[in-house]
Amino acid sequence: QNYLKLLGLPGVQADQFGAVTWEKHPVMSSGTVSLKAKVLSLRLEPSRCKHPLAAEAYECVLEAARTLLNKEQRKRILTLA
User: Fold this and answer.
1) CA–CA distance from 5 to each of 34, 47, 48, 69 (Å)?
2) Prediction pTM value
3) What is the chain's alpha carbon radius of gyration, rounded to the nearest angstrom?
4) Do residues 37 and 54 make contact, with C-beta atoms less than 8 angstroms apart?
């Protein structure tokens, strides 16, 4: 899964040499990740959203947030991005 795209965060920005710096990327801020996940989870909460796939989408958002908030898992995801 592409957790960055799911939460509406920008993708990888590389310079002309292909080097990627993540220090100033929004995903490095746990507050940004939490806010994006909170907004999406409120929209997709199965008790509020009657779409048949709302429960599945809600779980995907929670999984993306848990993954990106965990420092080790975030590092693994970002190296694959």
Assistant:
1) 15, 24, 23, 15
2) 0.81
3) 14
4) no
Q: How far apart are CA 67 and CA 76, in angstroms?
A: 10
Strand partners, 14: 20
What letter represents residue 3's amino acid? Y
Location of structure tokens 């995903």? 27
Q: Which pLDDT value is given to residue 31?
A: 92
pLDDT tens string, the chain, 81 residues long: the values are 688 899 998 877 777 887 777 777 888 888 999 999 999 999 999 999 999 999 999 999 999 999 999 989 888 887 776
Q: Rounded CA gap, 76 and 22, in Å?
A: 13
Q: Is 64 buried (19+), middle (13-18) or exposed (0-12) by CB count in 10 A?
A: buried
